[in-house]
Amino acid sequence: MNVYTSPSGREFNKNEFLEYFEKKVRKTIRTNDLLGKKERILVAVSGGKDSTTTLYLLDKITKSNKGISVEALFIDVGIGDYSKVNKVNIVKFCKEYDIKLHLTSFREEFGYNLCYIKDLAKEKKLKWKSCTICGILKRYILNKKAKELKATKLATGHNLDDEAQAIIMNMFKNTMPVMARLGPISGTQKQKGFVPRIKPLYLSSEEEVRIYSKLQNFPVKYEHCPCRATAYRKEVADLLDTFEKNHKQTKYSIVRSLIEILPDLKKKYKGKVNYCSKCGEPSAGDTCNTCNMFKILK
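RESULT FIELD:
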């Protein structure tokens, strides 16, 4: 009999682990009020283990609730075979579980794929990382599409490891206003034009998600994005992995520490609500990062 071990060291058989993981996600949703009685949820899916697991569980958990619907959105960023395989996998998954899937791409939205945009930046001698470009553009499309599809919540597959990395990155860079926007529900306040983002896997480790996904035989690609190799996040991830290996529950402790101070952070950095003067999307300044990016590139 196979034995599966949680980050805390608890051992399970297959059925016990599946039950343990699903209860954990349900508790995260319940204790953080991630879902209301009536919701139109749009899940941002990449074709990977985290977002596929998020989509599966939200659909399963809300199946009997007629007031809640769950749909998915896939953005093809255009990273060669990596994006093609992920698209095939998520289309297959949504067809199997009868989940409505919306498809779009960087090329459709902006006229260029990620690799071309990265080359344009390189020509202008801009030291922009692929992950930075991708993150800015994805966030723009996700909010825009969520509004078009009249979603009340936008769910992402961010897990415990992702959040711990984000916390440390913001601490290292001393970007506390950004830190204030973290948490199981993103943002510091309700903002017109911004669809709230929820993270059902917030307290589930990446390893737990990987095990769950494999036990469920989800059609996903387990390799990391090839553009991740030079990312700052990867350096932080490797650092935290080393700490976690030597000091169990390090990542969990980091996330719990943030949760304790998050109300004060959100209150302090609530700030003024701005909207981009060019596209009208929510923005920290007069123009959003996406419009600024293309202004520089053009």
